[in-house]
Design goal:
Radius of gyration: 19 Å
Organism: Occultella aeris
Helix content: 25-40%
Shape: elongated
Order of helices and strands: HEHEEH
Protein name: DUF1737 domain-containing protein
Largest sheet: 3 strands, antiparallel
Pfam family, one: DUF1737
Distance between the termini: 48 Å
Strand order of the largest sheet: 1-3-2
Strand content: 25-35%
Number of helices: 3
Length: 78
């Protein structure tokens, strides 16, 4: 097989790096809920209770999510 033919073979793109811990924030609306749901579908678990505050015009929500290995102690937070 020539070098040119080997270059034509499609390769799998590298999987994006996933952070062990994420803090999702934003207005408390359907889009925020969808972002939390997407994180859960990607294998994250809720971490702690959600937080909300009022910025004078709207409610802002925050929810921490972590990958399961963080909860099981397999990852050290530095």
């Amino acid at each position: 097989m020539s070098d040119l033919a080997a270059q034509d073979v499609p390769t799998q793109p590298a999987a994006p790096e996933r952070h062990t811990y994420r803090l999702l924030t934003g207005p408390d609306d359907a889009e925020f809920c969808a972002r939390v749901s997407d994180a859960l579908a990607q294998g994250y678990q809720l971490y702690g209770s959600p937080s909300v505050t009022f910025d004078g015009s709207r409610v802002i929500a925050a929810q921490a999510v972590v990958l399961p290995q963080a909860i099981q102690g397999e990852v050290r937070f530095v």
